[in-house]
Amino acid sequence: MRPSKRAPDELRKVTLERAVARYAEGSCLVKFGDTHVLCTASLEERPPMWVRGSGKGWVTAEYAMLPRATLERTRREVTAGKPSGRTQEIQRLIGRSLRAIVDLGALGERQITIDCDVLQADGGTRTASITGAWVALHDCLAWMRARSIIATNPLKDHVAAVSCGIYKGQPVLDLDYPEDSAAETDANFVITGAGGIVEIQGTAEGTPFSEDELLELLKLAKLGTTKLVDLQKMAVM
Asked: By its UniProt entry, which CDD domains does this protein fall under (predicted)?
């Protein structure tokens, strides 16, 4: 039995609330159970140096966890002078995930930055961030089209992410913190609406996992991301 009493293939309750930040071109408050992340999309007319003159744009992301997002206060990384290795890894993952489903040429020489700020953490902050970031990005691009900044929609597909793991010998979907902290295997899957795999991150915390177990986790992840994409579609209708 899972600590949350969920079935092995059951997501936590997921909500996607749009337009929650007044000044952002796109925003979404995403909740995966008790994990809450505010995602905002900001348009900048100047792209990074390395894409200037290419006719293409760029989508990037920044990620941060508020000091009391967890049981005990964590120090703001700005006071340390630089983001931690974990933070850098997560924000690069979010950026890669979004660029995989964006036509950067249709964006023009502009940059969209997605800020993902974790308000409350209970496992799966990176997967919630990616799922909510897609909604914020969608609304930013719609804002741009409504003002004739771009002529066509650069979005090629949906993208969502979910965690899976092996907990007490059982493959399970969408780990919360009690499961994440005790899982024998912990994995994150980023998958498009068409079912394409953008990224898989998997780690054995104890006994190495088998190929069959990896395929079982992938099966669960595809089930979960299909449901998440359905929620994205309903959110932006």
From this structure: RNase_PH_bact (cd11362)
Q: Which two tokens stand for residue 151?
A: 């002529």
Dist CA 22 CA 65 (whole Å): 21
Q: Would you say residue 38 has pLDDT above 90?
A: yes
Q: For position 79, what pLDDT does the model report?
A: 85
Confidence of residue 207 (pLDDT cuts 50, 70, 90): confident
| Domains of the chain, start order | 14-236 (3.30.230.70)
- Asked if 167 contacts 185 with a C-beta cutoff of 8 angstroms, the reply is no
d(CA 221, CA 232): 16
Q: How confident is the model at residue 205 (pLDDT cuts 50, 70, 90)?
A: confident
Residue showing tokens 């104890």: 206
- Which residue type is seen at 73? R
Closest CA to 228 of 162, 146, 177: 162
Q: Write down the mean pLDDT value for the chain.
A: 96
**126 carries a ligand binding annotation:** yes
Instruction: Please tell me the distance from the alpha carbon of residue 4 to that of residue 217, in angstroms, as a whole number.
Output: 19
Determine the pLDDT at residue 206. 80
Q: Is 125 annotated as a binding residue?
A: yes
The verdict on whether residue 147 carries a ligand-binding annotation is no
What is the DSSP code (8-state) at residue 208?
P
- Measured CA distances, 10 to 83, 133, 148, 223 (Å): 33, 22, 41, 9
pTM across the whole model: 0.96
Rounded distance, CA 51 to CA 18, Å?
30
